[in-house]
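Structure, all two chains, one model.
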Amino acid sequence: MSRLVLAELLKLRTTRTFWALTGSAIGLVLLILVLTLALDHGLDTADDVRSFLSSVGIYGLLALVLGVVTGAGEYRHGTIASTLLVTPQRLRAVSATVMACFLGGLAIGIVAGGLTAAISLPWLSAKGAVMLPAGETLKIFLGGALYAALAAALGAALGALLRNQVAAVVIVLVSIFVIDPTISALLEHVGQFTLTGLGIAMSGAHQETDLLPFGVAALVWALYTLLLAALAAIFTARRDI
Amino acid sequence: MVIHVLEVSDLTKRYGNNLAVDGLSFRAEPGRVLGFLGPNGAGKTTTLRMLLGLTLPTSGSTAVDGRPYRQLSDPIRVVGAVLEGPQFHPGRTGRNHLRVVATAAGLPRSRVEEVLRLVELDGAGDKRVKAYSLGMRQRLSLAGALLGDPRALVLDEPANGLDPQGIRWLRDFLRAAASDGRTVLVSSHVLAEMAQTVDEVLVISRGRLVAQGSLDELTHGAEAPVWVRSPEAGRLREVLQAREGVRAEAGESGNDWLAVRGASLEDVGTAAADNRIAVYELYRPRQSLESVFLELTGGTEAST
């Protein structure tokens, strides 16, 4: 299995999409950081700082898109045939893609989170802003990295299931920006199980009571991923390539 | 029990009302090149993809080394495949494409360099695939098929896009692979090339097997008439016509020529000798593979 994951990681590293999305994630994070810190807007309380530090977890969304593009890209470019010729067992093939995207998303999360910490913490300190306890700060950054990793993994499973890159990306974006807010508005307690609700819980943006605890949110997200990966493997086995 | 490396049994594939493959059965045996011919839409690619586990049969079965492809634990060392259609990420280099496959299969990177050299792509290995010509992509496909040094090759139109030099290289390569004891199943529409490459031919039309045999058997089919030239063509015709199942007709090329059907060269020669009839010429023209193909498939255009 490890060689399959290594092969999938090599696929990730040798296409421009991965580097473009990683670059976009870092660029976006830097832009938000610099603008927020330079404008010195709304960083008066611990809640403000917590919200600021975790809001740069926007890279989780890009990691999700990376996963979707990677999972569905196999079908777009026809590389799924050579993948399955080497690994005819569909579950192993899908699992390798999901795991590689998990690691790719984790890398994006660590780099983007590390940059955020390296820039924002000294800056906030110099400005005399309220500083969060070290443990909480670390949890925010680790949560962001885990969120990015799990987001990429879920994206890969969804992409492998749907196969159409554009449709899969649109479905993800519509889900996050339209369906999730609607569900949260209409069904208060269901909102915590949406991708957005789980993402916020993992990245530690808010300490709202209607969010699931960090570990539970990560577990639910992982279960969604496993379910999608299993469905992708089943459908791939029953479909003509 | 002898295990035939590639085997298709009563294979059927239906897409809605369209019967793409209809009860097809054949074996490709080690040490031989089996050519797979058929017109457009005859079901060749569908058959090969079912053999490789990429397309599900409606009924029937396929086996590679005695097992369905999907059950092979290390398939790249058993079968190397070249498929039609896109199979490369255009932004990835040829070398990286092969490295991905090699990594997944647990093969060393040195093997990638070996196959790149073998297909003469070592100079272009670092170019992105989108910059490759059709012929280069085909060579890259072949390189991928050869990575695992497999015992069988399943090649769908491998000569597509190759220049004459490449086609010659492919022909020599396939012959060498068969001489090495490998099983080679190759579909192609380049009939002249098939004639020079294959040991046995399989012809399908509308998903059904219409002929199978060695090139000699197919191109010397019983339907080809025996031509005989004799100064006593009229008498010879009477002698031959008197035999059951034999039909002799005056040839178009002259009154002393006869076209004889339902008799072998030996039958005609012996009949002439027994009746003391002089014979100046006696032969059965070998049909070209192309004419046999067109005859068997109802004159449909050669396939892709």
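DSSP finds ten helices and no strands in chain A.
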